[in-house]
Design a protein that fits this description.
By secondary structure, this protein is mainly alpha-helical. The protein is 63% helix and 3% strand. It is built from 8 helices and 2 strands. The chain has a two-stranded antiparallel sheet with strand order 1-2. α2 runs antiparallel to α4 and α2 packs antiparallel against α5.
């Protein structure tokens, strides 16, 4: 949305999205599905891969809290399994990683457009650091 909001009109009347904002958004799309999957598995615990069979429900193995049916708990765990390590994870995670192009290509485009020297100069101005003091700084060797 930010890339479209900051788009620029070209002579034909079409609009070109802001390249930096678009690449940052695409890069985030490649990262966050994996983080969401990791968190879902963390919250669900080991039961995602070690859940007992339906036959074991008779033993009340999954009954932990009044009002929460073990079958419902199993359904949620199966959903997490399916989306994070099961058959749907293949499409969901792989598409998230490569569907918008390679994450490395996005990082390269972000680096090209970020005007790092301008940012360094702004940081020096804000902090009062001069070029001369940077040149005279000796970095200790490891």
């Amino acid at each position: 949305m930010a890339g479209a909001y900051r788009s620029k009109a070209v002579q034909s009347g079409a609009y070109i999205n802001d390249e930096m904002l678009s690449n940052v958004a695409k890069h985030n799309v490649t990262r966050y599905p994996f983080e969401i999957s990791r968190l879902a598995q963390d919250i669900a615990g080991g039961l995602v891969v070690t859940m007992p069979s339906e036959r074991d429900l008779q033993n009340k193995f999954l009954q932990r809290r009044d009002g929460v049916e073990p079958v419902d708990r199993m359904k949620i765990l199966r959903l997490i399994e399916n989306m994070t390590i099961g058959r749907n994870a293949v499409g969901y995670l792989t598409e998230s990683l490569h569907g918008a192009g390679s994450p490395q290509a996005q990082r390269i485009q972000i680096a090209r457009g970020m005007r790092i020297e301008e940012k360094k100069a702004l940081a020096r101005d804000l902090s009062g650091v001069t070029e001369r003091s940077i040149e005279n700084t000796k970095v200790p060797k490891p």
